[in-house]
From TrEMBL:
A motif (DGA/G) lies at residues 157-159. The keyword Hydrolase applies. It comes from the Bacteria. Keywords: Hydrolase, Lipid degradation, Lipid metabolism. It comes from Clostridium taeniosporum. GO terms for biological process: lipid catabolic process. A motif (GXSXG) lies at residues 35-39. InterPro entries: Acyl_Trfase/lysoPLipase, DUF6363, NTE, PNPLA_dom, YjjU-like. Gene3D superfamilies: Cytosolic phospholipase A2 catalytic domain (3.40.1090.10). This is Patatin family protein. The keyword Disulfide bond does not apply. The active site is at residues 37, 157.
């Protein structure tokens, strides 16, 4: 079986939205989807077959004060008003098709980090509910979001530990994978000042999470190398941006975000025949 692996990346995820809309236009119905953070939030709309929904949400709400903004940190303790983003928008403003999602006859997995164990846990579609707690958890970046409680455990952004969950897909039996990345070719992650600060902040209360964060850049670069190894063996197709991803994590420029979406769409359409042959 062929897996679809979705990297996170906050608003860089508009690239992934474009890729997934292209797959829908090509009627490529993947039966295994795994992702973290923005990757899997986009992936949910692919599973519900709602072409253009992720782009619509961005265009309608990117400048809404409750969607993203530092004022929300004071009111909601998160840079996004999570109730607005994961409750009001999908249930009132841009309705999510829960019925079609529920009928999906494949596997869709959202990864989130258990802050006590420092391990990524994957939640399948049976965990979905109208509050979208799983999606809240997989997007909860430390410092910018509160940790999310699920069954008396607290969870954070899955991309902290398993940003490109390719090994999960391979472990689950997929001998071929389509991997959607949100960084340009040649990108390598380096230890940042923020990572060092977060490590110091959490090392006493959440030592396993802190240790994992300390080595995050090493883990990420190893994942990139593994993706390349699979690609060289014709066991993976990597789709990545071909325009410069010179945007902030929470970019507000609609034109830049639309350009990124279009790049994802167009790059996928370009390799249509290659994708079809690879999946078949």
């Amino acid at each position: 079986m062929t897996g679809l692996v979705l990297e996170g990346g906050a608003f860089r995820g508009l690239f992934t939205a474009g890729v997934l809309d292209a797959l829908l236009d090509m009627n490529l119905d993947m039966k295994y989807i795994v992702g973290v953070s923005a990757g899997i939030t986009n992936g949910y709309s692919y599973v519900s077959r709602q072409r253009g929904r992720n782009l619509e949400v961005m265009e309608k709400f990117i400048n809404h004060k409750r969607y993203v903004g530092y004022r929300n940190l004071l009111k909601c303790k998160s840079i996004m008003d999570m109730d607005f983003v994961f409750d009001e928008i999908p249930n009132e403003h841009c309705p999510f098709d829960y019925e079609t999602f529920d009928k999906f006859d494949g596997k869709v997995l959202a990864g989130s980090v258990n802050v006590n164990t420092g391990e990524v846990e994957y939640f399948d579609k049976k965990h979905i509910e109208n509050q979208n707690t799983i999606l809240r958890a997989t997007c909860s970046i430390p410092l910018l979001f509160q940790f999310v409680e699920i069954k008396n455990q607290f969870y954070a952004d899955g991309g902290l530990i398993d940003a490109i969950p390719i090994k999960k897909s391979v472990f689950d039996g997929n001998n071929k994978n389509i991997i959607v990345l949100t960084r340009n070719e040649g990108y390598r992650k380096h230890e940042s000042k923020v990572s060092k600060f977060v490590y110091k902040l959490y090392r006493k209360r959440y030592p396993k999470l802190a240790e994992a964060l300390k080595n995050r850049h090493i883990q990420y670069n190893n994942q990139l190398d593994y993706c390349k190894e699979l690609e060289n063996k014709n066991e993976a197709i990597i789709i990545r941006p071909t325009i410069e991803m010179n945007i902030g994590r929470f970019e507000r420029d609609k034109n830049k975000l639309k350009e990124i979406y279009n790049n994802g769409y167009n790059e996928t359409i370009k390799i249509r025949e290659k994708l079809i042959k690879f999946i078949d």
